[in-house]
Amino acid sequence: MSDQQRILDEITQSEYKFGFSTDIEMDMAPVGLNEDIIRFISEKKEEPDFILEWRLKAFRHWQKLKEPHWGNFKFTPVDYQALSYYAAPKKRPQLTDMDQVDPELRKTFEKLGISLAEQKRLSGVAVDAVFDSVSVATTFKKQLREAGVIFCSMSEAIREHPDLVKKYLGSVVPYSDNFFASLNSAVFSDGSFAYVPKGVRCPMELSTYFRINAENTGQFERTLIVAEEGAYVSYLEGCTAPMRDENQLHAAVVEIVALDRAEVKYSTVQNWFPGDKEGRGGVFNFVTKRGLCAGHHSRISWTQVETGSAITWKYPSVVLKGDYSHGEFYSVAVTNNHQQADTGTKMQHIGKHTRSRIVSKGISAGQSNNSYRGLVRVAKNALNARNYTQCDSLLVGDRCGAHTFPYIEVKNKTAQVEHEATTSKIGEDQIFYCNQRGIGPEEAVSLIVNGYCREVLNQLPMEFAVEAQKLLSVSLEGSVG
Amino acid sequence: MSMLVIKDLHASIEEREILKGISLTVNPGEVHAIMGPNGSGKSTLASVLAGRDSYEVTQGSVTLDGKDLLEMAPEDRAREGVFLAFQYPVEIPGVSTTNFLKTAVNEKRKAQGEDQLDAVAFMKMMKEKMNLVKIDQSLLSRSLNEGFSGGEKKRNEIFQMAMLDPKLAIMDETDSGLDIDALRLVSNGVNKLRASHNAFIVITHYQRLLEYIVPDFVHVMYNGRLVKAGGKELALELEEKGYDWIKEDADMVAQ
Lengths: 481, 255
Hints:
The complex is a heterodimer of chains A (481) and B (255). Chain A has 481 residues and is α/β, with parallel strands linked by helices.
């Protein structure tokens, strides 16, 4: 076995470093899914009727749909009746400071290195901690409120700002959008809500950490971000999940609305449990993320670093409706061991002079499969639309796969659409060159991979970029020789 | 004490023997030139010393300051002070020379039990060495070797050499593909790095480079063996007469 193969095996065999489970009393919904369960969820959350009605409509629609299996990955159909659709920490305290937080919960955060105590000290970052679907602590709220920014859990938004929720919920991803979005609409547990009023530049990065932490509980986050005319907001989301044996379903929905001249940046680091090295367990991550550039000169930018989950099915998209609007998608997707990722984006050019830019960096190691799937659609009236797509794949070892599925539909002759794609391997030559300078094989791989992803990592806020770099190294640990 | 001692070194690639018994001793402060026709095994020797794993050492020994070099992984050899200036420097997209060298320098320091250099100390060191080998800052912030001209790549190698301050620097056909100006720049850099504590093995096909980097010893390699040794005048003789007479002599001996 060559050295390269050996190191490759070492890296590919590194176990998930965030595996543990916390004991907190749960308030669980009975297993199964029917209209009564949906009523139970809605009642638990003390929701107004319009939300319940919406959930039920979504559920009725969902029942007519079939679980999609068109992605470039295989999975055993999920038994939706075997899942529980609601779990909340039993006591939901109204917190004013950290001492009131459940010590078990705090320990969990500390293990993850994202302790709220630390976060609170971090200046400029507001943390809305989502723990098993229900927010238990929110910080920096006051400062945000002074700026006129609303940043709270979705449940709270439904209670406190029903008009805004009514106006925008489902306006970008309707309940009928797709199988998983319909399911989410029917049973969504919680999530984040951000609203930045006209002309306001959000004074800090908004950051949320998600965790899954209950046996057999699906996680159905629902996030809605609205930027009014001329507003700006940067939203960060990151997660790690505890180790477990059974597959977990995660079907989140994120909607973004940007009005005239508004700008929204959405960054994610996703590190759900990917399964063990034999491919057992791991999160099924079926996510619908979409932004609507509703106004002219609006901008929406998605940046994602995807390293976790057994299966990732995710296409953060932008609907470029406003004239001169701008959509961006920057992605690093790492798959290792038996992970499968089918991810990419959709850029729908509808308005005139709309632009989009796609930079996708796939990294496959172990026996994993990594697919880029992207759609660029230019509608009939989208005069002078421009798209640039760059889609690179990096292979680590010779047992993994990289696939690219670009779809381009152009209905206006003035459109300019560019697509560039490359596939490369981390070469023995590159590693030897690093070795010869005193850089060991693992460090070399990490260096090469981070170099390869630099364009995407540069899009992340500084402290997040550092975290993401570490995560990339950890994800590929042992994988090259 | 001798720095590098190579004894009866045999090495093959895919069952084919390339090095057929090389013996060479290099002392601190010396510059050895290894010349020879194409395919004689010069670059193989460089690769074997640096530890490229596509070659298998079948016989012989190599020690550096008494330590068994062949037992060490390539990165450990580098940390012990072996530097190879590559004939074809490798491109690493997205990684700047600065960042690359920061990692390399600190890995070496770590191995030697020294503290990591902070950003300020590192930049100071960079400035100093940039000045020494006359390399431009702008080159160092670009992706390592990506889109570099032949001359830029070689100068970058010499710059890296300056930063890592090796005991033993092996230059594998560093002159290939260089025009006369680039050759002069590269050679000047090397000459400034020559010191009593380090040694150079300069592998080249042509005598031209040796006009600038004047060797203490010249060895001629042919068919996997060092068949002739002499002073710097041997290089001139080779330039004049070509390699054929060496080949004939060596072939006669082999028969």
